[in-house]
Amino acid sequence: MAIHNKSHSNHALMSLNKMRKDNNWKQKNAADFEKPDRVKLLHNIMDCCEFLKELPDESVQLICIDPPYNLELIGWDIYDNYIEWASTWINEAYRVLSKNGSMVIFGGIQFRDVKSGDLIDIIQHVRHNTKFKLINTIIWYYKNGMSAHRYFANRHEEVIWLAKTNDYYFDLDAVREPYPEEDLKLALKDKRLNPENTMKGKNPTNVWQIGRLNGNSKERVGHPTQKPVEIIDRFVKSLSYPGSIVLDFFAGSGTVGRVCITEGRHCLMCDSDPASKEYFNKHIELMKNLGQNTEYEEIKSVDKFFNIE
Ligand SMILES: C[S@@+](CC[C@H](N)C(=O)[O-])C[C@H]1O[C@@H](n2cnc3c(N)ncnc32)[C@H](O)[C@@H]1O
């Protein structure tokens, strides 16, 4: 019997696909969700461990954090027993994540004299003491950086993607990269590739070339370790869906909040430094100057955010 093509005009296939989508998060993508007109945003100034205690179980889709490490460069970077402290927020993060949720942790393994308190320690801890699943290590590769004479100049940082269960939400289509015209022609001829996916673009892989923010970058709002919008955007689009909740409890300048406004995700942010709010206001000003949407509803308490009476 001839096998018909997999056209979506086939009603039986369409309803089967819908059933799969309704029951199985592996099949869902942004098109299955509605973007809210105005996102809710809460930005608290307090310690992250206290903040996390206020959040309900399994209420958050994506946690995207860039924690302090024991580099002792700035006041907020020093912890006596780093992993004991980190385990408190890692455990709370697991509790507040939804079953389809993910956590992304920025970090580094390049700190030469550091013996404890970097991404290596976090990976080791997560592996042996939690139920988190390590899905990917993303290499953030950049061409701009400091020069070096006693070692190879550093040109990448690492970011880990952890999921709570195997049924994690992942919208690859939202972040595929278009093929250059010539490559597309070749890819469409390649019988090993699915032409439908080829047309959508290629998998960006786990090595991402995205420039770091220089001192004079137009995106800069003054925070010393501010992350580029482009890298946060890729995580928000692929690991959360429109109308879901994204949490950053080391908010810094609030880059995650900025991306959430653009992408239609509700956002919870916390930072112990009161200057975090000033940095975030600068993000909003920059967005206005770029003619971007800056509408959001500012929520003052966690109870109001979750409509808890
Ligand atoms: C690496 S920065 C985050 C930068 C951010 N990703 C951005 O793009 O601007 C880490 C932030 O964690 C905050 N921080 C350090 N310890 C904290 C704690 N115990 N609770 C909440 N925030 C904390 C610091 O004030 C700092 O702003």
How would you characterize this protein structure?
With 309 residues, this protein is an alpha/beta fold. It has one domain (38-169, 206-305): Rossmann fold (3-Layer(aba) Sandwich). The protein is built from ten helices and nine strands. It has helices spanning 11-23, 48-53, 82-96, 119-129, 181-189, 195-200, 229-239, 255-263, 275-289, 302-305, and strands at 39-45, 60-65, 97-107, 133-141, 156-163, 207-209, 245-248, 266-271, 296-298. The chain has a nine-stranded mixed beta sheet. Helix 3 (82-96) links the parallel strand 2 and strand 3. Helix 7 packs across helix 8 (255-263). The N and C termini lie far apart (60 Å). Mean pLDDT is 90; it is low at 1-9. The chain binds S-adenosylmethionine (SAM). The site of S-adenosylmethionine has 18 residues, from strand 8. S-adenosylmethionine binds at residues 47-48, 66, 68, 76, 223, 225-227, 250, 252-253, 255, 270-273, 276.
